[in-house]
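On to our target:
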Amino acid sequence: MKTYKLATLAFLTTIASSAWAESAMQVADVKAFASPPTAMAGGGYMEITNTSEANDRLVAVEADFPRVEIHNHEFDSEGVARMVHLEDGIPIPAGETVILEPGGLHVMFMGLRDTPLVEGEKVEATLVFEKAGKVPVTFDIVKRDMGHSHNH
């Protein structure tokens, strides 16, 4: 009888955590830019909205690459930008949206030599949150808009 109750409790806890994770973190605009054939790394971007009343933290991203890290750009005293691995992840405050974008917070896919990011393809990944748990996402690989116009 005790085994039955424990198994039921474990099952209900799993269902409750999964439902909370699916509803607490809303992820939108998930994309990565296509990489040149010689690129060793590429960035992933998205918007994460924490719809819960509890602060959370994105602690990892899992995908089929040699390494996947969470990064940010920081500027040194000379104004030179460098990427920094955020070992503690990214805080996602309750009720707020955090944007991962070029020049700021982003996911870094490393070791692309055998698995380049090809325009039109998709990359399956899992976002790992401290409280919300694992949330599956799909990165759409898109062409990078170089941000300049040819209008004269």
